[in-house]
Amino acid sequence: MPLGSLPLTFVIVGFGAPEAWSSIVLCLPILAFAVLSLVNFGTVPTTGVAVPVLLRYGDVDVNAGLALGDVDRRPGGSGERDGLIDRVARLGLGRARVGVGAVHSDVQIAWCRRGRGRSGTGSDKLAGETRSEGAMLPAAVAIVGTGDWARNGLAPALADLPGATLAACVSVDDEQAARFAADFAVPHRFSTFEALLTDGPPIDLAVIATPDDHHPAAVRGAIAAGLAVYCEKPVANTARVADDLASEIASASRPATVGFSFRYSDAVQRLRHDFATGMLGTAWLLELYEHNAQFHPRVGRPMTWKQDPAHAGGGALFEYGAHILDLGAWLLGPTRDVAASFARVHPGARLDDIATVQLRYADGVLGTAVASWVLEGGFPGIRVVLHGSIGTAEALLDDARTTGDVYRRLAADGTVLEEVNFPALDHHGYARRHFADLFATLRGDTPRYAQTLPTFADGAHVQHVLEAALAATQQRVPVSGPGR
């Protein structure tokens, strides 16, 4: 019987505290074979040996069973035989250590059932998998901009992190700033960022959540003051300014990130690592969606500055499209070219309410993106579908459709191989994880989520894609012939 047909999956769970992972259970000769293969860096002298192995690092699942003795199918891989542990190390998840007894006591082997149509929830993770998201070092934070997202997302996320203190807030709207300060017990408030830097308390991190056109000045002020920076997306309204900011950040000595927090979804994390470890094969097509009825003219809330060209370079494309365009580039690499179409359906709309974009990535993979703040959906209304040569994976983030993020993996014939319903995150849960990784970087630790923290260079690339999409609507080819 081929090894891959056995109804079992080996699960290597790490890395917890040594005292939490003090036992290694070797149950069958076939399991011993798998462990010995791992010790030898996963190199098996035969092809087609498909031992299904799932490695868990923290709460990142790495499905690497197809790697044993097989070719390197990672995106951009060499095509040569490649050791399983070496692959995982290159993913930035850390180096696995497999041993027996007390020699390497931070690894435990356990069993889980394998089969078609398997489903589960995030609550069935093995004990010790979750780690604290708390900031372990006191950090004074100033929030620049006290609007809806600062109130409903960023401030609650920071309030959840031990060690993070909301020391000051900034807003040109004094009444709004006063309400914000009262609601979140912020001791200092200022009408300008300059006043905060001159007269305010010591600050470690500036969280910039102003209208888009004010981002560059605030980022530059934070850099000059030697602060760490979290800037909401987009980082600027033009690619040129975004490039300049990325260069200035690269020259600074403090950590900085852009608010692409949906990278921190459990379902998105799982999709990325299943793809990177060969579970989906070669990428063929990526579908990206983010839409909900936030500004629906009948059931949504009143429109804000986001529809004002004086503050925003684009409408739904910039507000929602930036997130999914980032996810696409994070999964597949840089975007090579785009085509786009926009629609305005909101009464008096001056910017796009619906945006559709066709993409081609650097390695030739095709993509589609739909962004809208008037179409149906809950928060955040994101769906990512990656079609590969072996199978398809889908991540769904939508609190109107599910109680938590959902991950599905399908065979080429459409059979559901796996469905995982992760525990629900509140609206600020993604940002909380994002801030925790930023704080880890700030104190010199390794972030919990490997290769996830978005950079200003990532933000600049997204800005180039947005700018290209705006230009790509300016020329259309008419369809000729009968019935047009």
Tags for this model:
484 residues, alpha/beta, nine-stranded mixed sheet, six-stranded parallel sheet, 11 helices, 19 strands, 27% helix, 24% strand, disordered N terminus
Q: How would you sum up this structure, described in words?
A:
- The protein contains eleven helices and 19 strands.
- The chain has a nine-stranded mixed β-sheet, with helices on one face. A six-stranded parallel β-sheet has the order 8-7-6-9-10-11, with helices on both faces.
- The protein is an alpha/beta fold and 484 residues long.
- 46% of the residues are buried.
- Mean pLDDT is 78; it is low at 1-119 and 121-132.
- The protein is 27% helix and 24% strand.
Outline of the structure:
The protein has eleven helices and 19 strands.
Main beta-sheet annotation: 9 strands, mixed
The total strand number stands at 19
Instruction: Count every helix, treating DSSP H or I runs of 4 or more residues as helices.
Output: 11
Overall pLDDT metric = 78
Order of strands in the sheet with the most strands? 5-19-18-17-16-12-15-14-13
Give start-end ranges of low-pLDDT stretches: 1-119, 121-132
Q: SS-based structural class?
A: alpha/beta
Strand content: 15-25%
Cα gyration radius (Å): 24 Å
Shape: globular
Tell me the distance between the termini: 59 Å
